[in-house]
Automatic annotation (TrEMBL):
Biased composition (Basic and acidic residues): 235-266, 530-546, 592-606
Region of interest (Disordered), ranges: 159-266, 530-622
PANTHER family per record: ATP-DEPENDENT RNA HELICASE, ATP-DEPENDENT RNA HELICASE DHX37-RELATED
Lineage, uppermost ranks: Eukaryota, Metazoa, Ecdysozoa, Arthropoda, Hexapoda
Alphabetized Gene3D superfamilies for the sequence: 1.20.120.1080, P-loop containing nucleotide triphosphate hydrolases (3.40.50.300)
Keywords: ATP-binding, Helicase, Hydrolase, Nucleotide-binding
GO terms, biological process: maturation of SSU-rRNA from tricistronic rRNA transcript (SSU-rRNA, 5.8S rRNA, LSU-rRNA)
Known catalytic reactions: ATP + H2O = ADP + phosphate + H(+)
Name of the protein in question: RNA helicase
Limits of the Helicase C-terminal domain: 575-769
Domain Helicase ATP-binding: 294-461
Basic residues composition-biased segments: 561-576
Amino acid sequence: MGKRRFNEKGRQKVETIIDDSETKKIKLDFAPGDEYGGQDNSNVLVLPSKKRETKIKKDRTVVTKILSKKQRKRLEKIVDQKKKKENRSSLIASLVAVQASKDDLSGFRKLSEVQTKGLKQHFKEQKYGVTYVNNAKEAGVAKIKSLVGSRRKRLALLRQAGPASVEEVEGEYDPNVVGLNDPSSSEDESEEEVEEEGEEGNEQEEEESEQESAQEDENEEVDKNQPEQESITEESSKKVENAPPEDVKQPNGEKEKPTVVDRKPATYIHVERDPAIQAARLKLPILGEEQIIMETISENKITILAGETGSGKTTQIPQFLYEAGYGERGLIGVTEPRRVAAVSMSKRVAHEMNLSTDVVSYLIRYEGNVTDRTKIKFMTDGVLLKEIEVDFLLNKYSCIILDEAHERSVYTDILMGLLSRIVRLREKRGNNPLRVIIMSATLRVQDFTENKKLFLDTPPVINIDSRQFPVTVHFNKTTPDDYLREAFLKTVKIHTKLPDGGILVFLTGQKEVNTMVRKLRKMFPLRGDKEGVRTGKKVDEKKEEVVRDEEDEFDNVYRGKPAHKPPKAKSSKRQKRDQLPVLPQINLDAYDLPHVDDTEGDRAEENDTASELDSDDDDDELNAANLSASVSELRKSQPLWVLPLYSMLSPDKQQLIFQPPPEGARLCVVATNVAETSLTIPDIKYVVDTGRQKTKLYDKTTGVTAFVVTYTSKASANQRAGRAGRVAPGHCYRLYSSAVFNDEFVEFAPPEVQQKPVDGLMLQMKCMGIDKVLNFPFPSPPDPVQLMSAEQRLLQLGALEQVIVRNGGQKVQKNQTLTRVTELGRTMAAFPVAPRFGKMLALSHQHALLPYVICLVAALSVQEVLEEVSLSEEANNTESGKRWRQKRKIWAGTGESLLLGDPMILLKAVGAAEHAHSKGVLEEFCTENGIRLKAIREIRKLRIQLTNEVNANLLGMNLAVDPDMAPPTATQIRLLRQLLLIGNADQIARKLPESDIKLKTDARKLKHAYNLPMIDEPVFLHASSVLRREQPEWVCYQEAYEAIVPGVVGEEGSDKTKMFVRGITAIEPDWLPKFVPNVCNAIDVLEEPIPPAYNAATDTIECHVRATFGKTSWELPASVVEMPKNMLRCKYLLKFILQGIVFKQLKPFRKSLLSSPDSVLKLYSTAVPRIDAALKVMLANELFNAQRFHELWQADPKFFCREYADFLPVSCHEDVAKLWPPVE
């Protein structure tokens, strides 16, 4: 400190604050302060009477002092101690995690017990006693968080409790549990630190501990009044913990209600796993998050788990739940969007848990191994939706896992909406609440967290880091049009220049996959050529007759529809005819909606002859002229084990990707987007991503579909890249530029429910009692146009009916029109097929049609049954093509059989395949006749399922799948045509009349064109249709689609498109008003050629009508139908009653009638009182047939007696009264 100056206080420059509050209160009548002569601080007009108070403003600036060397050392020492304490706590925590259980330690003894203890320890035990406290919470001792002196404070607290307790504790000492008297002080400290970390990490545990300590204080007060104290053992502590505390009287005489804590005992189910599997499990990222995940699931009804590919969520979450005891409360259900994923995941989880398939089972559409012992059940989402119909609350389940939610399939979206309500209902019931876990790889979390209509309370989201190794993404500088050739070049370059590691190539469809596999196998063959044995190459060689010769180089490979700057192809007449792409036979309203995989698109390219047209590109890098020397060098490199992967591949071939490749060979899997999320392929280090996928576009209004190759979404691209980082740092080679990725790739693919027809979905929801489907809590609601179109189609099929409901209070009444399911609709929904096929099955019990309809419906419900081949002679002249074409013409037959059309070929093919199956030659038969083996097996499973459903729902039925089923007769074939018309009421086409062709130039082009009711453009029959040459006037079809005509340029420079229909059946136009009256408009009842007549057998009035079809009002020929139920029908029924035709007992009164029966039909009939009164009664009571009269006579025998007596003189009234009602 320096020397103080003289008068230092007076020399200071300070700021003085003057209190002017009293001066400001004085009011002055002078000019304001801002004008001349006003008051300011320098010109005071009024002096205060007292001295004003002043304050000196203190300078509060804090000057930071530099620490001295000694202080700095002391602080550094404190910091080091804290770091050591943190390291010690983590070390102790890790030791506790691997500490042996109490049962394991019970067989050992501490060395301190066996060895001689020193005098210091002996006197210490004599003075303080040997004390063991099992748990500080249970013993009623308050927690001490300080490490320093903790043991001393605990012993002091025990002494206060009394010496007896100390002696009893001494007697109950267990040396196998780390206690207070262990010689190591570090153990004491570590125990305290673990408790501190648990308290700091979980606030809820602190609250519970405070409540428990409060209860334990009350228990201590009660125990003091008891003469004897119980020994502190584990059993007694459990009793204290579970028993409710006794009421303690307060000083004011009131009893304080004890706080009841909801304690749930922890459940653990031990699983004996293989050590190798356990070691592999510990490497998964999700294992580190097990505690957080299970606590979140336990505390929340719904949990969203977002983990990228490779995190192990699909296989590990069911195991977590099983070990936590959820399998003891009910089933653990896991839904997968694909059947192959459900089967493979159930086998994998059973293998990891070392359990049998009786405990970990699966159930898919056609098969399953679920038993009474099942605890974990894998299934497709459609199976769970069917179970909800039977048991809405899902009482058998304790937990439901929705896997792969990012794919947004229709059933997954519906399940989310239903489960969000089921969870709340189960919670209200109070018994066994349901837990729902929504798992996804690239989940669009905003659709769930921000959708208050779906979830009232925002569910917690747990993000799991998944990719164990980094993946380097490489973009192309440019985006090539020929992505297939670019993928081949990139695969060759990776194989020849980069280190070992599996290669995964993503393409768009089955045809591209097979072509790439064939070329890669040719380029890098296996030494020894044994791959044919493992891959079933012999079967594939027979199918390859329809493709180009294998000696063609890769410039002939299918280029597909380019997604970026498509080149103009050559236009020639032959090319126009050959290049028409063939799309899959998919029913637009299929009940079992196809999911986002490659199944739908495979058929689009199956007959796409443009895919392998000869190319004139002389500068192709892989041309034979340029590669003559380089190919020989490439063949000397490491062999390549190339395997295909797509959804239509047989299961045994799909399993090959999980087996190790031959020694010395590199694995290469060429796959569609089915490999994005459903299957995990091992040992993949390199990913080649073309960035394309085959997308099905669906017109919500017309129902027309189109397949185009488009870019995938950014989420799918990231999913594909994630496949490369499983075993080591990987690389993803994207065959497009980063600019295209940023500008043209969408963030997420649109949900499937917004891109599909929802007929079967709406019917199923109506059967569940959901009348207002528009208000259902969809995660992503479908377009209202979709719902309206589906509702309209179901109304046409008769599955729904309109009902008028009156709502409102006493003053205001509002009528609301709703649609509800009919009995026919419930019957249709009982079959696991599309509603249109369900109606065919519901009506097929007549004339012994059931076996044929079941076979036909099963064949129409499965995609890709037949290998596509054009039935024209000039196309597909290969040996197999000629053989298939000839066989199908034989199956089509002539006469009625030919008019049944394409379904007849399917019927004959399935029947012949079933016969071949009974003889054990199914595979050879399918290969020889161009039938897909996998499709036939699926059809057989569906036939068995439909047969069982029919036997269960229809009494007296005992159907079976007959391998020797006789072909249908001509009459049965005609009835099958009528049933197909009834099922496809909204899919009818008419041949374009010549009068509608105005230009002569269009006459040849539109010669074979047809019209659809909802589309202005003409459509054409598909080349594979057997009725293409016949050109029937009216047809019904299974699918309408739009395809690009290669080589033909449209108006705006783009490729021209054409509309096609497939699955053709010829129909008669006079059937339309009779079988599908909902889509016909009856204009007038005709008196010629035959007037309306009453049919006593059917109790209806039949007549010839002049009618039109659809909104376009196509003219129909006059046909005999049931008369529409209106006033005209009442007039004719009254006429037939008066004539004595309906009721024979009234025929004697015909001579005494005051008005002739024919006068009822006159224009002046309503002016006659007796006629008018009778017609009003009939219309009001809906009297359209005799059956309705009988129903009303049961309630009132004299009904309609007075109205009929008015037509007779008074003398006949008594006779009519005695006769009435006129029934036999």
